[in-house]
Design a protein that fits this description.
20% helix; 4 helices; five-stranded mixed β-barrel; 37% strand; 242 residues; five-stranded mixed beta barrel
Length: 242
């Protein structure tokens, strides 16, 4: 009897280990697999209009049959370049059970073949994508008070840096001058922008920017710049009446 009990216990342990191992393997395969949106159900229709967030970003489209298609706002630029009202589209995604709602993984313009695929938001973690760009400065860019906060290269690339650093490195930021910059690059359908971390006359001669990166809109570059030049500040108060 003891032998049978021991054998049964050993069998249960082996069975549990096999199940756990199989589950771990399945979990590993799920995590490591690449998602293929073409395997999701397809819905076709004609775009009637975009849907917008309070900030004006596109977060989906409405089809002419009333179906609401949800897309993440970080795809706004790609969506408006590839898909327009009146276009016939193919959508891959999951449809809601009880309402005309689609959670889209991709949307394709049937006529042009242009597709927008949701691969998640861009990775904006600092220091991951530093690259070097270069070109001739076509124009300087300014904040609302006239302070320099970047430059536009002749190929359309935008360089952005905090106004205090732009003032400190003003010798590197002159219109018509050739410049090299290193930083985090974001390349979108609307253009390329570089969050500058170092700048100089060449990739071998660069000056690192000082201090932390500028914070968000509430305390952004426009609020940390130098005093506004004449003509850009608020009007002076009226003189006191005698």
């Amino acid at each position: 009897m003891k032998k049978m009990t021991r054998m049964r216990a050993l069998f249960c342990v082996l069975l549990a280990a096999t199940a756990i191992g199989g589950g771990a393997a399945a979990y590993s395969q799920t995590r490591d697999s690449m998602w293929d949106s073409s395997q999701l159900p397809e819905t076709r229709g004609t775009v009637r209009q975009y849907t917008l967030t309070p900030r004006g970003d596109v977060d989906g489209v409405i089809l002419t049959d009333g179906t609401e298609v949800k897309l993440p706002p970080h795809l706004t630029a790609q969506i408006v370049f590839a898909i327009r009202p009146g276009d016939n589209v193919s959508i891959r995604g999951l449809r809601a059970r009880a309402m005309p709602l689609l959670d889209a993984a991709s949307i394709t313009n049937i006529a042009t073949g242009k597709s927008v695929v949701d691969n998640g938001p861009p990775d904006r973690r600092a220091g991951n994508d530093d690259q070097v760009v270069g070109g001739r400065i076509a124009a300087l860019l300014h904040g609302k008070r006239g302070e320099v906060n970047g430059a536009l290269l002749d190929d359309g690339t935008t360089l952005r840096l905090p106004p205090p650093e732009a003032e400190r490195l003003q010798d590197q930021l002159r219109q018509g001058q050739t410049v090299s910059a290193r930083g985090d690059i974001l390349d979108t359908a609307l253009g390329k922008v570089v969050d500058v971390r170092a700048i100089g006359a060449s990739p071998e001669q660069m000056t690192e920017l000082r201090g932390p990166r500028p914070p968000g809109p509430k305390d952004g570059p426009d609020r940390r710049g130098p005093p506004p030049p004449p003509g850009f500040g608020p009007p002076p108060p009226p003189p006191p009446r005698g």
